[in-house]
């Protein structure tokens, strides 16, 4: 993809990764972009790089605008290797002695990634770097997405380089929000649910801090996906809404099954939920990816988890999902467990333990049915669905 001018003298010089489908366990069917930005000023400045294997493509993009060796300053907003993997190649091209600006934690983490004695220039929160006609103000945004993360803000253009925040894993021909329209929002939502959900309290604090600082933002340039130039407030408002996790009258029933017995229970639970008028969605974990399920859970008021007992434990996909969900720390959920078993039947107890550790509100001891559910077992599952549905009505 060719470089694109975003504002006078400021260019997107990133790359599209059309074929990537996995981002540390999150399924990204639309690929991704690794966005890097070039600022032409008295001091020519590059913000972030790309994955290692795309470093030459990044340098080719820059060379269409200016000789990369004329870059004066390198900015690293985030150490994760989708943005820093190209640093060794870029630094060797532009000159390894050029100043490399990053947060203090960025210096530490980059040093642990790359055994290079680069000319690190750690910056403080609120620090300003003069480029000539413009300046960059640095805002530390610890844990969005890593402890080293920071934003860089160009006051003169009211333009925010937001690193991982406000991005999407989406590779397409479009570069801007007005080109892609509403179709980008499901990608942004899935990205939030799978990358940033656990930092929701920090996001709310950050938005408040930025509001208090009176920063006007005309354009948001994230490190993934599209640039928000038509309506940056749209993605900020969406982040606030997603971070608040206001529970809807919606239940996600997530399960796996060995011989369809736990599936029969799942479908009966969905029937019971539907009878109370709440939205109910079942997800079989070998038909749906964990990252799609967690996206559905983002605004669900209830999560009901089912597993058969396999070898005295959880079915592996259910254990995988519980680990994934626990790490992302969704909150404000009511929950219940269910499952078919043959003789020992530990799965429901194990699910309950995980749900309690997630601080979900368990509203039932859980439903265990031996082998194949008969009419009574199915009715018990319908009643469990109704119980959860009625609890959701009272939210
Ligand atoms: Fe896009 Fe946290 O890396």
Q: Please describe the biggest sheet, giving its number of strands, its sense, and whether it closes into a barrel.
A: 7 strands, mixed
Terminal Cα span: 48 Å
Number of strands: 24
| Class from helix and strand fractions | alpha/beta
Write the layout of secondary structure elements.
Elements: E1 4-7, E2 10-12, E3 15-17, E4 22-23, E5 26-27, E6 32-34, E7 37-39, E8 45-47, H1 55-63, E9 73-75, H2 81-84, H3 87-94, E10 99-103, H4 104-113, E11 119-123, E12 128-130, E13 135-140, E14 150-154, E15 159-163, H5 177-180, H6 185-196, H7 200-213, E16 219-222, H8 232-244, E17 248-255, H9 261-275, E18 279-284, H10 290-297, E19 300-306, E20 309-310, E21 313-314, H11 316-328, E22 334-341, H12 347-357, E23 361-362, E24 367-370, H13 375-393
Parallel strand pairs: 8-9, 9-10, 10-11, 15-16, 17-18, 17-19, 19-22, 22-23, 22-24
Antiparallel strand pairs: 1-2, 2-7, 3-6, 4-5, 7-8, 12-13, 13-14, 14-15, 20-21
Helix pairs in contact: 6-8, 6-10, 7-8, 9-13
This protein binds MU-OXO-diiron.
MU-OXO-diiron binds near residues 80, 82, 83, 164 and 223.
Question: Would you write up a description of this structure?
Answer:
The protein is an alpha/beta fold and 395 residues long. It is elongated, with a radius of gyration of 24 Å. Helix content is 35%, strand content 25%. A hairpin with a 4-residue loop joins strand 12 and strand 13. The chain contains 13 helices and 24 strands. The model has no long low-confidence stretch (mean pLDDT 97). The longest helix has 19 residues, at 375-393. Helix 6 (185-196) packs across helix 8 (232-244) and helix 6 (185-196) packs across helix 10 (290-297). MU-OXO-diiron is lined by residues 78, 80, 82-83, 145-146, 164, 223-224.
